[in-house]
Design brief:
About 6% of the residues have low confidence. This protein is mainly alpha-helical. The protein has a domain of 64 residues. 52% of the residues lie in helices and 0% in strands. It has 5 helices and no strands. The protein is elongated, with a radius of gyration of 26 Å.
Length: 117
């Protein structure tokens, strides 16, 4: 019976530590129902109850973390739907893909390697 009490104590301490550090590292604008500072105080003062309340009422929802975008379906990400001509198109961004594609970067590199030239 003593091991059951020790197990419950260990689980509650692990839950408290997880909830405390999760609340500390969560951005303030993603916390629900209470301000972030108040959640940290609730978790610290009310050890088992505050941690459980944080997990159910304070943590950001998973879809809010991902930008409210639904998860892509597995069928849409199969290799059969890829078109090889998509890889030969130039990128839509104004920046080069790598440093060796950027002529200005190569000029600066040449100047750093051989400043006398």
């Amino acid at each position: 019976m003593v091991w059951l009490g020790g197990l419950i104590t260990l689980v509650s301490i692990v839950l408290w530590v997880y909830a405390f550090f999760d609340a500390l590292t969560t951005p303030s604008d993603e916390v629900r129902n209470l301000p972030k500072v108040l959640w940290v105080v609730v978790i610290a003062l009310f050890m088992p109850v505050g941690s459980i309340l944080w997990l159910f009422l304070g943590r950001p929802r998973q879809n809010a973390v991902a930008g409210d975008a639904p998860f892509p379906s597995r069928a849409a990400s199969s290799a059969d739907d890829l078109d090889p001509s998509d890889f030969t198109k130039p990128s839509s961004g104004p920046h080069p893909l790598g440093p060796d594609d950027d002529p200005e970067f190569l000029r600066r590199l040449d100047r750093r390697i051989d400043p006398d030239e």
